[in-house]
Structures are given as structure tokens and as C-alpha cells.
Amino acid sequence: MLAASIAVSLMLVGTLGVLISLIMTDRALLADVRSDVDGLNRQIRAATAEQERLDAVLRKPENAEVLERSVFLNSLLYRKGISGRGSSPTWRRPFHTT
């Protein structure tokens, strides 16, 4: 009976060692993941700041006409179907060689 209790105790200590090892490995992996997430968040903040800077340039009064024309042309192209869909869009017909 004493030998069985000692064997079970040794197995429990071994299991505790394995669990501690797994916890330490998990913490190290989690630190790497946190570092990667922080780097990605920095990139997102930089991209957002750049987008805001570019949006501010587009909203300037001297750029309003160009922006309006661009929106108009994009909507016209979308309506006319020059988006690359279809077998032979209108804009490709003059260049089609058969």
C-alpha cells in the first residue's frame, strides 16, 4: 500500500512538472503573439494616419473639382460596364485581333 502511494505521488509530481513546462512554453508563445499584435497595431495606426493625411489633401478646396470629376468618371465607367467583366467589353473591341 505504501509503495502504491509513493508511485502515485511520483506520477503526480511528474504530471505537475509537465504542466509547469507547458505553462512556461505557452507564456513564451503568448509573448511572441502579443509582440506581433503590437507591431500590427502600429502599422494600422501609421496607415490610418497616412489615410487621414491624404483625405485632408483631397478635401482641400483646390482639389474639389478634380475629386468631383474623378467620382463622375468612375461612376460613368461603372455604369458603362468597363470593369473587365463580360466576354468583350466596349473598350477592348477596337484592340481585338481575330
How would you describe what is shown here?
By secondary structure, the protein is mainly alpha-helical. It is elongated and about 90 Å long. The protein is built from 2 helices and no strands. The relative contact order is 0.04. Helix content is 76%, strand content 0%.
Q: Report strand %.
A: under 5%
Chain-averaged pLDDT: 86
Rg calculated over all Cα atoms: 32 Å
Topology order in helix (H) and strand (E) letters: HH
Low-confidence stretches: none
How would a textbook summarize the main sheet? none
Q: Which structural class fits the helix and strand makeup?
A: mainly alpha
Shape: elongated
Please work out how many helical segments DSSP would assign. 2
Distance between the termini: 93 Å
Helix content estimate: over 70%
Please give the number of β-strands. Answer: 0
Keywords:
98 residues, mainly alpha
What secondary-structure arrangement, pairings included, does this model have?
Layout: H1 2-58, H2 64-80
Summarize the structure.
The chain is 76% helix and 0% strand. It contains 2 helices and no strands.
